[in-house]
Amino acid sequence: MNWYLDVLKQYAVFTGRARRKEYWMFFLFNLIAAVVLGIIDGVLGLSLSQGMGLLGSLYALAVLLPSIGVTIRRLHDTNRSGWWCLIAFVPLIGGIVLLVFMLLDSTPGDNQYGPNPKESPLGAIA
After folding, report:
1. Full-model pTM
2. In this structure, are residues 71 and 23 in contact, taking their beta carbons and an 8 Å threshold?
């Protein structure tokens, strides 16, 4: 849960690096929240036309900037520019390429985006 809250605390921070664990734990908690809110929307009849419900839509809007921020910081951790997140808009292949980048390990040592969070005491959250 700390990983999720740490990303939310860095609401619109697009600099620095994010560990793989930080990214995937944030992704997991977002997935759990989306499922729970989807169920609540369905039970309460708050579903919008053929899409997400009202609560799910509000939640997605609330975590949009933190999601973009942690994705950019994760790309920085693999020594790539944050602009690579735009590849997700390329049909068929873009999402796969971005997924591969998210799965790659950190670049060892410091890079142009900052120190390795695995090696720094601030990034080593247990």
Report:
1. 0.86
2. yes
